């Protein structure tokens, strides 16, 4: 009887550990303040990150791949105004596991600086 209780406790512990290990924080696409930008000079920027699930059990760099891809995109965009964000997930089966990839693509527009004229009005 005591052996059965130990096996049940170990099973519950392993199940809880497995569920906690596969959790990751959600990625928030930060809203940019409305600023004037040059809509004629948009460029596509992207970021991607991949992780590997070894033997369908051990995650290697899989939990934060969306955050890594978003950070890469924002570095490439620099100070530009980012809009039209698209997220794509894909996976590739490998013999000893699965590769999971997140790709984020957006359009970056250069911001316009407001210059003031001698009369005090702002021009773009």
Describe the protein's architecture and organization.
The structure is a single chain. The protein is an alpha+beta fold and 124 residues long. The chain has one domain. Helix content is 27%, strand content 37%. The strands form two sheets. Strands 2-1-4-3 form a four-stranded antiparallel beta sheet. It is elongated.
Q: How many domains would you count in the coordinates?
A: 1
> How many strand segments?
6
CA(first)-CA(last) distance: 80 Å
Structural class given helices, strands, pairing? Answer: alpha+beta
Tell me the series of helices and strands, N- to C-terminal: HEEHEEEE
Strand content is 35-45%
As residue ranges, the low-confidence spans are 116-124
User: What is the alpha-carbon Rg in Å?
Assistant: 23 Å
- The biggest beta sheet, please? 4 strands, antiparallel
Identify the overall geometry: elongated
What is the percent of helical residues?
Answer: 25-40%
What's the arrangement of strands in the largest beta sheet? 2-1-4-3
**How would you state the average pLDDT, rounded?**
81
Count of helices? 2
In short:
The chain is an alpha+beta fold. The protein is built from two helices and six strands.
Helix and strand topology:
Elements: H1 2-21, E1 43-54, E2 58-60, H2 65-77, E3 81-94, E4 97-109, E5 115-116, E6 122-123
Antiparallel strand pairs: 1-2, 1-4, 3-4, 5-6
């Amino acid at each position: 009887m005591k052996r059965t209780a130990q096996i049940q406790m170990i099973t519950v512990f392993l199940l809880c550990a497995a569920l906690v290990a596969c959790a990751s924080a959600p990625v928030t696409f930060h809203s940019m303040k409305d600023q004037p930008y040059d809509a004629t000079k948009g460029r596509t920027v992207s970021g991607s990150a991949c992780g590997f699930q070894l033997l369908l059990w051990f995650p290697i760099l899989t939990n934060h791949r969306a955050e890594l891809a978003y950070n890469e995109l924002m570095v490439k965009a620099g100070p530009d105004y980012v809009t039209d964000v698209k997220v794509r997930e894909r996976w590739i089966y490998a013999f000893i596991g699965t590769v999971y990839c997140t790709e984020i693509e957006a359009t970056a527009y250069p911001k316009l600086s407001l210059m003031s004229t001698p009369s005090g009005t702002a021009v773009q």
